[in-house]
Here is the input.
Amino acid sequence: MTRVANENAGYSATNPTVSILLATRNRLPYLRAALASARSQDLKRLEILVSDDGSIDGSVAYLADVSREDPRVRFLTGNPTPGVYENFLFMLGLARGEYVVFLGDDDLLEPGFVRDLLAGFSEPGVVVSYGAFDIIDGDGCPLPDATGRMRTFYGFDGTAGGVQRDARYVALRGQLWLGACLYPRRIVTELGFNTAEDGAAADWGLALSVAELGAAYYVPTIGWHYRDHGHTASRRNLLKNRQGAVDVLRRRSYVDPDLERLRTGRLRRELLLLASRQVLEDTAAARRTLASFRANGGSRLEARHLALSALAALPAGIRVVAIDFAERFRASRHGARG
Here is the structure.
């Protein structure tokens, strides 16, 4: 028996407070670290559901061994519909915790992550508790420049820790990243991930829907590490992610003028990001997106400002691609004029 197994002798997960839901597929090296970080949580009443979505890299054997060793780990292989959101929904239907965390198989949690976020629900009206996070590379090394740009882009530096009375504001700013949040299981079970309408941005759609219900609680201590590497879903599906974000915002409107201004401003930003991706594949679609940007109040000056702001917030690898494209575009224009 290992030390972990001995420490959990007699442990019963029949009534856990929190369920960590870990979706995985063919990422055994990252999975080992992600699961270790989940198992390191210092909350006693905890269960960890891990759903493998068809791995062929040894993950299945590894997870079977860990689940036998650690009674908190429930290893699942029966997800009927492949896909990360489908995998999370499958686990959500089997979770027993009052609250849930969604953990990617390449991300990491600090030991106090669940405990710190759980404290937020002692405040009245809180429907989501979320924490600060940083960006790490494929080897787990911090990327402080990328983290700083991200914090500025999404307004974290101007957000004080504690209760955010209207969660819609922090949700619209983009602060409720799925892996950084602790949600009541009852609420997310009812709302789910609306992939049919929100597409790849179904996690943000969920955040905005939950935010309609009350307050948020922000823990400014870094408890989640988002791994930015060449094989992340966000890197592989940039166009779908941007289109999903636009769809999420188009489907919403707010009576409160401040919220509506925030929504339309964010929509314009997402339209520009979408157009920057579409130019690489479908210039006609890019023109339609830019027309939508102008129809939503966007000006040429704002386009320049938002484009620069968005570029500064992009992860390093994506930013290099964007700069390279801009340089090639400028060179092609100079060539045409010559």
